[in-house]
């Protein structure tokens, strides 16, 4: 009898746990309609920060201040709100949580940030985000883009090499070729630099898009050149047409919409099980 009671008690606890495994769906309200987004548990710092800002009402009455058609819509700059009080400002950054399993497909929700020159660790803005619109790309275009990223990586390593004291003679040689516009010589130098790069830094990282990434970019579209550079922490799962409507508005200086597009943001509670069934996002825990 005692064992039976124990089993029943454990079953009740398990059932209750399953029932209470819920998560938050983000709802963006705009004059063009609503967008719903899920937040990834694999980017916990960004998820917790975003939820905190939504719950405190920080995003309400912010605008989409930068909009580029076929690319993305950017908003969430709390500090642009008129008459903002000092204590309401968001001036902190968040450590990058770049995850290879999330890429910049259409609808991706990602954190804006400052450029690499002043932000080499790719830390995210505390409040600004962007939602990808992008465009469709074919396989050969994606392959070319991947090759370009490898070449950019190589250029960065060459700059590091030429900054080393022991390679001053090579630096002077490159400077001379640049002065003389010796493109053939510069190209030859870049081709021969592989051995020096391998010696000083090891082999360059091979970059390529996965079959799944290619399928998404070919059928759904997105902004693949941003992959690995910014933290993607969620995805719009309803209201993709709203992205298109906002992206198509008339813009002025700095890609700012001529007419302000305000948004309010709130949260909608939903069970993890329903989120998985409805939107296909799998949680790492077993309680759904």
TrEMBL record:
GO molecular function: peptidyl-prolyl cis-trans isomerase activity
EC supergroup of this enzyme: isomerase
Domain PPIase cyclophilin-type residue range list: 24-264
Its EC number(s): 5.2.1.8
Keywords, comma-separated and alphabetical: Isomerase, Rotamase
Top-level taxon of origin: Bacteria
Listed GO biological process terms: protein folding
Catalyses which reaction(s): [protein]-peptidylproline (omega=180) = [protein]-peptidylproline (omega=0)
Role according to the record: PPIases accelerate the folding of proteins. It catalyzes the cis-trans isomerization of proline imidic peptide bonds in oligopeptides.
Similarity comment: family membership: Belongs to the cyclophilin-type PPIase family.
Full protein name: Peptidyl-prolyl cis-trans isomerase
Organism expressing this protein natively: Marivirga aurantiaca
């Amino acid at each position: 009898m005692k064992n039976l009671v124990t089993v029943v008690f454990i079953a009740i606890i398990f059932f209750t746990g399953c029932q209470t495994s819920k998560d938050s769906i983000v709802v963006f309200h705009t004059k063009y309609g609503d967008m719903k987004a899920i937040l990834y548990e694999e980017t916990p710092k960004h998820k917790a920060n975003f939820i905190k800002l939504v719950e405190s009402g920080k995003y309400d009455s912010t605008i989409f201040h930068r909009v580029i058609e076929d690319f993305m819509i950017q908003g969430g700059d709390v500090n642009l709100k008129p008459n903002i009080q000092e204590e309401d400002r968001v001036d902190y950054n968040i450590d990058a949580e770049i995850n290879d399993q999330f890429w910049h497909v259409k609808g991706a929700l990602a954190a804006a940030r400052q450029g690499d020159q002043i932000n080499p660790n790719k830390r995210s803005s505390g409040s600004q985000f962007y939602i990808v619109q992008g465009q469709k790309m074919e396989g050969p275009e994606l392959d070319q883009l991947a090759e370009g990223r490898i070449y950019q990586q190589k250029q960065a390593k060459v700059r590091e090499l030429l900054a080393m004291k022991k390679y001053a003679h090579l630096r002077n040689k490159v400077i001379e070729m640049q002065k003389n516009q010796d493109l053939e010589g510069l190209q030859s130098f870049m081709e021969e630099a592989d051995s020096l790069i391998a010696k000083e830094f090891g082999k360059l990282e091979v970059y390529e898009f996965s079959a799944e990434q290619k399928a998404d970019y070919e059928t759904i579209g997105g902004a693949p050149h941003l992959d690995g550079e910014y933290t993607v922490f969620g995805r719009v799962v309803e209201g993709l047409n709203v992205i298109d409507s906002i992206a198509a508005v008339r813009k002025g200086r700095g890609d700012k919409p001529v007419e302000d597009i305000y948004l309010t943001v709130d949260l909608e509670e939903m069970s993890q099980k329903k989120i998985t069934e409805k939107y296909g996002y799998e949680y790492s825990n077993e309680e759904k």
